[in-house]
Glycogen synthase (Azospirillum lipoferum), 488 residues
Amino acid sequence: MRVLYVTSECYPMVKTGGLADVSAALPPALNAAGADVRLLLPGYPAVLNSLQNLHEVGDLITDLPGCDRARLCIGRTADGVLAYALDAPSLYDRPGNPYLGPDGKDWGDNALRFAALAWVAAGFAAHKSYDPWWRPDILHGHDWQAGLIPAYLALRPDRFAGPFRPGTVLTIHNIAYQGLFGPWMMGDIGLPSASFRIDGVEYYGNISFLKAGCFYADRLTTVSPTYANEIQTAEHGTGLQGLLASRSDVLTGILNGVDYAVWDPATDPHLPARYSPEDLGGKDACKADLQSAFGLDRRPDAPLAAVVSRLTWHKGLDLVLEAAGQWVSWGGQLVVLGSGDASSEAGFRQLAQWHPQSIGVRIGYDEPLSHRIQAGSDLFLVPSRSEPCGLTQLYALKYGTLPLVRRTGGLADTVIDANPAASADGSATGFQFVNATGQELVWALRRAMTVYRKPDRWQTMQRRAMTRDFGWHGPAEEYMELYRGVGR
């Protein structure tokens, strides 16, 4: 089964969120399951500089949307996965964030930049000149940046028709990001004007790349079973719930996984001490290290809660701002790593000023520090209003840092609440709350504090959490089964 995996980011070459982690870990797992997976990435400078043995393949591409000339290059990732890079300097040779300019706003030509990526992916269906030696059975696109792939195959038979037509899969990592552009871009991105309609690419007067993919793809997936159900409702569907409900027979929720070669406290090179479910002793050293790093009191008995997140309302971080004072009054501590809304950043900075011995805040992102936070904390907070899957709570489970989450999306699917039944049978791995209010978060924190004060029970939950398996082998087998159903 030959699969072209089309993504706009891949760790460690380029990362803005969990998509990069998934794109780094899932293709090797699929290859291990028997697939022949190759990546297709935009030719950002970081990608071109990172791929090993990079060289040009196929003919010069001269008909891309927004670009007269481009090369398709091929190399290998650090994990040995073959990857194509679309080398189009006018579209991708830019510093910093792959989507945002220096002013913090979207690049004005993002429609062209990601239409070009989808155009090349679709081109593998009909043009041997892209790579004379390899053609995919499946085109698997991820998020809105790849949403036009199935649309091009359906709407542009003049360009992409041929004796071979691969199956198409679109994975929705977060339905809130849809790739919306003005209707005047239809011609520029190579879509026929007749497709600008409700049963096409039109979305409330704009073009939606994500809707295009949802409408035309052979199969749709998202990153947890609960989220697959949620996005068919008005609360979470962001206007696409009707379309997704009408296509529920081809929509599947497959949980993301964790790359345990990267996230494992027994081997993690970023930690001052390592530990395992059989020997938790190193976690105490990690906690002391984290308290020092954030300038907190070195109190081994203080329950230390953590946040590693975008600091936004959507992520429920306003609830943490509301509950933090109560947590500190009980003797708890809090560390925060992230960036986001100016008001949220200011709120956390203010909390740290008010409680310098108990609350530490770092604005920005630091990958090694995120590992130290996972290892050194006791409790990991993910109070999101919606969360397609979430990865940080999966990392926390592996590190014996009990997640406290809102019951939504993948958070509901991966954390077993310490209710009386789960506590009695030893299956509990964390804490859940239902309604997105500060008071409910406070109640959940109180429950966690109560269990923390019972070390035997807390360690039982830690060991149970650390032995849960969210590796990629299971999701990879689910994707393989899906591919077999859509392959042509």
About this structure: The longest strand covers residues 52-61. The domain at 2-257+472-486 is CATH 3.40.50.2000 (Rossmann fold). The radius of gyration is 23 Å. The chain has a mean pLDDT of 95.
